[in-house]
Design a protein that fits this description.
- By secondary structure, the protein is of the alpha+beta class.
- The protein has a domain of 240 residues: Dipeptide-binding Protein, domain 3 (Roll).
- The chain is built from 15 helices and 25 strands.
- The longest helix is centred in the C-terminal third of the chain and has 18 residues.
- The radius of gyration is 25 Å and the shape is globular.
């Protein structure tokens, strides 16, 4: 079997990898053997063992009942109510688009390379913007032993036609039909109005395949509310037990994928303790009572500086691979904010370094004036020259010059007035309790006051914030847009600039919250979505990003990881990191590969 998909790029190059490829990829697994001890030496080559703490330390392994268990946290924060994957309140790991270890998806995705990879489908082919054809893996079965065929895949997606309240329903805005032509072949006809192949592929990496024999017995209107305590999926684990303290999964010894992956996962069970807060989980993680975790840890470097065998994918700041882009939204229906020069001055006034260093604990790279992440899977589309020539960076003096060049005059109170409109008072909102975002807002407000824009913060409850943003009653807000996935950066441009989903003030919208208007952008979005190769996409994104930089309907304030991937090498080593990058720092999709390759420290 080949391991070539997981070549080890250098620190300089690995975040620049990109591309979407089709085909069957086989992944080899390593044997789970290793010597004990508390140092990094003693590996098979006599050198340092791979995938250990950032301080080059590891533990001695666990003994007893948890020696063969993977202890994980960061996904489940309350007693599990249901394991129905169609429920909006599904418990881990049945919740939408988390770890594909009980329920699996037709395809998987790699955040480092941008590759769409095999899942329960061993390959896919794309016919221009007309169709996508999937070919199933050999011998796929559900955990009850029944066969999983192409018909189960089609059934799983067609559930979105029966109930528009489930995640997969949006698939049918992108596809006209999905047909199982035999037990192993699925043909998807692309919607010829949107012709958005990348978004179809995204849905195939995010939506689970469920057994028709089980879900066909559930009434259509009950699909998202049916309570399930025994999930039946195709994955390598099954639910063993769950209560208010933990969720425990057991290895499926008959997992269909052991041939494809070169063996079974290393651990016999996975235990997810349920903590009341981040801090409770952080304490257990630091003590080595968790192996891997997905949650925010302020100043995580203090753990390895204190001698703990804690590691992250990147060994230097920002420690995590960037995967999302929280935005400062500006309501362009508000006086002053309807002026592109004012919006560009705001973007130029923000102290991004302070946001990265304080609000984000240093976990953000330098923010660029673009809706494209400049590294990772999207990096090939980023135009650094145009961003430098026509973008912005933190420069208060330049921000004021933009205002005065546009005709703004500073009033006696120190606040600028432009076209008869005083720039403020503006309220900057984000949900209370979103601590790093709250801190970011305080920095933004301070930055704007420093250049003569009257801005203060307000942190409502999440529901109130959501209503204000979607309904358009806000002035400015820090909010999220599409993270990195097979459909970005297109999906992010759509979120910020789309005209087709715009609603008037007072009506709910799910894109272009700032109600920015432009007669050219919709055709540009269509051109980008229908481009069939990277060159065509790059040309379309160059035009979109140039328009974005001219108009500045919103601006990124930080880069956040898609997932907070952090591990403790107390019981296992060979975790993926930038020097051992056989798998990306993910818990879903291609990230599942590390389950087959980590190794026990103690035999």
């Amino acid at each position: 079997m080949s391991d070539s998909i997981f070549e080890k790029p250098s620190r300089r190059s690995f975040l620049k990898l990109g591309g979407v490829v089709a085909g069957s990829i086989a992944l080899a697994a390593c044997a789970g053997t290793g010597s004990g001890g508390g140092s990094a030496s003693g590996g098979a080559s006599g050198g340092a063992k791979p995938g250990i703490g950032n301080n080059n330390q590891m533990g001695k392994g666990r003994s007893g009942t948890t020696a063969d268990s993977l202890l994980i946290a960061g996904f489940q924060w309350g007693p599990p109510a249901t394991f129905n994957p169609l429920s909006p309140t599904a418990a881990w790991p049945a919740a939408a688009n988390v770890m594909q270890i009980v329920y699996e998806t037709p395809l998987r995705w790699n955040i480092l390379t941008g590759e769409v990879m095999p899942g329960i489908a061993k390959s896919y082919t794309v016919d221009g913007t007309n169709s996508v054809t999937l070919t199933m893996q050999d011998g796929v079965t559900f955990s009850d032993g029944s066969a999983c065929t192409a018909k189960d895949v089609v059934f799983s997606y067609e559930l979105g036609k029966k109930n528009t309240g489930i995640n997969v329903a949006s698939f049918w805005q992108l596809a006209d039909s999905m047909e199982a032509t035999d037990d192993t072949t699925i043909v998807i006809k692309i919607n010829q109005k949107t012709k958005n192949v990348s978004n179809v592929l995204r849905m195939l990496t995010e939506n689970y395949v469920v057994p028709q024999a089980v879900f066909s017995g559930i009434a259509d209107d009950k699909l998202p509310t049916e309570v399930m305590d025994k999930p039946i999926g195709t994955g390598p684990f099954t639910l063993d037990k769950a209560d208010q303290t933990q969720v425990v999964l057991a290895l499926n010894e008959n997992y269909w994928g052991k041939t494809f992956y070169g063996g079974l996962p290393v651990m016999k069970q996975i235990i997810h303790p349920i903590f009341k807060s981040n801090e409770d989980g952080n304490i257990k993680f630091q003590a080595g009572e968790l192996d891997i975790m997905q949650q925010f840890v302020s100043q995580i470097w203090k753990m390895w500086e204190g001698g703990k065998p804690v590691g992250t994918f990147l060994k230097k700041k920002p420690y995590y691979v960037p995967g999302s882009m929280p935005m400062l939204l500006m309501n362009t229906t508000k006086k002053g904010l309807d002026n592109a020069a004012v919006r560009k001055a705001i973007a130029t006034a923000i102290d991004y370094a302070s946001i990265a260093d304080t609000a984000m604990s240093g976990y953000s790279d330098q923010v660029q004036p673009s809706l494209i992440l400049p590294t990772g899977a999207e990096g090939k589309f980023f135009n650094a020259d145009d961003a430098k020539a026509n973008g912005w960076s933190y420069d208060p003096a330049a921000a004021e010059k933009i205002l005065t060049d546009a005709g703004a005059k500073k009033g006696s109170d120190g606040v600028y007035v432009i076209d008869g409109n005083r720039l403020g008072p503006y309220k900057l909102i984000t949900p209370t309790g979103w601590t790093d975002w709250n801190a970011s807002c305080e920095i933004i407000a301070k930055s704007l006051k420093a250049i003569g824009i009257d801005c203060s913060t307000n942190f409502p409850q999440q529901a109130e914030t959501t209503q204000a943003i979607q309904g358009g009653s806000f002035d400015m807000a820090v909010w999220y847009v599409s993270g990195v996935n097979p459909a970005t950066p297109w999906a992010r441009f759509k979120d910020i600039m789309s005209q087709s989903e715009m609603q008037p003030i007072g009506k709910t919208t799910f894109a272009n919250y700032g109600r920015w208007k432009n007669s050219e952008v919709e055709a540009m979005l269509t051109e980008a979505s229908q481009a069939t190769d990277d060159a065509g996409k790059k040309a379309a994104y160059d035009k979109l990003d140039a328009l974005y930089r001219k108009e500045v309907p919103a601006c990124p304030i930080m880069y956040r990881p898609d997932e907070f991937y952090e591990y403790n090498a107390t019981n296992f080593y060979n975790w993926p990191d930038e020097n051992n990058s056989y798998a990306p720092p993910m818990f879903r999709g291609a990230g599942n590969t590390w389950m087959y390759k980590i190794q026990k420290i103690a035999g």
